[in-house]
Amino acid sequence: MSKGKVLVAMSGGLDSSVVAMMLHNQGYEVVGVTMKTWDYASAGGSTRTTGCCSLDDINDARQMAVDFGFPHIIIDIREEFGDHIIDNFVDEYVAGRTPNPCVLCNTHIKWDALLKRADQLGCEHIATGHYAQVREENGRYVVSKGLDHTKDQSYVLWGLSQESLSRTIFPLGKMQKKDIRQIALDSGYEAIAKKSESYEICFIPDNDYRGFLKRRVEGLEDRVDGGLFVDKDGNILGKHQGYPFYTIGQRKGLGIALGEPMYVTGIHPDTNTVTLGPEDELLKTEMTVRGLNLQKYANLSEPMEALVKVRYKHPGSMARIEQLGSEMNVKFYEEVSAIAPGQSAVFYEGDDVIGGGFIKKDH
Question: How far apart are CA 24 and CA 29, in angstroms?
């Protein structure tokens, strides 16, 4: 007997392919869906496409659906993706911040698109290949870290609403990556099992975000080129190539030699200046986080202790967090390096995601 109908997001990669296979074998009525989010060639850069945008990957997803006898559809969400994700990405860099496109894509594009199609197709659930877990506790749906902490993706899921989480299945949450690969091999999908993982932003597969910005914003170079590198006291250190092309904490690629390692410690669009300083000037103990979305609790009525991650690869630092309306004040117990406005801050209680938001400023 069917366990229910589930819409599975299939990129054609290893993880989502194994998810579809597992749910089918567990007795779910699977419908595979591949989302066409971005056509990189249209940006004027490399014609190479990766991930969910690759024709080969779309064909791999479709072939698996044929092999297992479940439906597979392709939906074109390039317009929604471009309007929201690309525009935000460009606007954030031009504003001197470091954007988080994967978080926005999950929250506003992929899950919305999946739930809309799930309703149209009569699917009770949606499933993805994220390494994370979700459970219901005290009337709330709570995301927690995947069992394989080296692959954990809970950080990029803080923006999901309670409604979205109530219908979401993460089949890989209690599994190790090596076991996922073995399942694909044992099932005869050697090519999928051996696919390399892509860590680039899907719409910048060549990793040249500077080139991408130049192509997207007409006249950007003329507006920002020739600005100044300065130190914290305003002393001029040299010329930079344009403030949107730098991120907080950056050391390499500055194009300037000052006799000691220097890092980007501040970005100032209003003056077209970039502040450089030694590593210790990156250390901060407090920040404000905006655009909160809480998952484990509806709101925080009093301050609490939490592990706070300020970027995806950050191991996290303990802090006192206090909700102030739609913002969170975060006071770290120890100094934290390279807090970048625009990046996501995610708050954890043990392995559970309390919630998250976008870094507004440090103190």
Answer: 6
